[in-house]
Fold this sequence. Notes:
Elements: E1 15-26, E2 37-52, E3 57-58, H1 64-67, H2 69-78, E4 85-91, H3 101-116, H4 122-137, H5 143-150, E5 153-156, E6 163-168, E7 173-179, E8 186-190, H6 197-209, H7 213-232, H8 236-252, H9 258-267, E9 271-277, E10 284-289, H10 294-303, E11 307-311, E12 319-321
Parallel strand pairs: 3-4
Antiparallel strand pairs: 1-2, 1-12, 2-4, 2-5, 5-7, 6-7, 8-10, 8-11, 9-10
The structure holds (3R)-3-hydroxy-3-methyl-5-(phosphonooxy)pentanoic acid (PMV).
(3R)-3-hydroxy-3-methyl-5-(phosphonooxy)pentanoic acid is lined by residues 28-29, 31-32, 98, 100, 140-141, 143-144, 197, 201, 278-279, 283.
Amino acid sequence: xxxxxxxxxxxxxxxxxxxxxxxxVFGEHAVVHGAPELVFAIDLSTQVFVTHAxxxxxxxxxxxxxxxxxxxxxxxxxxxxxxxxEVRTVSRIPKAAGxxxxxxxxxxxxxxxxxxxxxxxxxxxxxxxxxxERGAQGVGSxxxxxxxxxxxxxxxxxxPGEPLWTIRSPEHTWQVRRVSDPGWVWVVAxxxxxxxxxxxxxxxGIRLAAPGGPELLEExxxxxxxxxxxxxxxxxxTVAELLRRNQELLRAVGVSHPRLEALIEAARPAAEGAKLTxxxxxxxxxxxxxxxxxxELVRRLARAGxxxxxxxxxxxxxxxxxx
Length: 323
Ligand code: PMV
């Protein structure tokens, strides 16, 4: 099934790897509770360089092992050999912005460590990256990590596409499938307001367990399922309508933010549809531009205080940089 997605081969240190960020189109938060989600890998990425060293450090910081839970969790789960390593990273993905900077770091570094310990196939790398992120964050779904391992458009728990793999946690099982790329350009814009994914996920979990929560979860699920189908057949106007509906649901569970709403409002004249993307409570918006109005949209978002990027799906997932 996953023949199209090459394994990570065995290599020796020093080596370098990279992984893309991601943009969630439909279904964030609800996916944590087993509902469908649609995500694509974006053409902003993180590059990781790993070499043997006297002490383990991240970007020259020896304290990172203690202070950075993603680094610590990756070392614990993917570098069992334990010999000290120097890790250096360069990233174009804004941090804590909902665009997958931690998933890219985890999957890129896990790919490098796994390569240096005999290689790994992609389904195992996806499960390992999810376990590492869960270990660091305590909560979450495999949507981000599976997307940055697979590249392209990915559906979690939905769609008719080619099955890629299944990811398991003690509570849930998620089916990961390919969605065909409709060839669209998207615009994302960061509010500049950082936030904690784990805090937002816990707050939404409480809301979804309260009266009316199961009905909201069902509506999230329906919206994402319809969204996966609409993207799969390239139906922009349905996607635009579903982006609006998904944003209403995200508002209802309390993860919108005045700066997100301001960007969505500013985008309106040049957008077919827009919503927050990622955990919300700050972070970023994703906008489907009116074709031909991409530059106007970027100007509007920048004038409204956002940091906009035109993004295209990155077809390849985490991989080694081979010379
Ligand atoms: O904001 P990010 O990039 O951490 O995305 C979080 C997406 C959630 O659905 C809120 C959590 C998850 O793990 O799926």
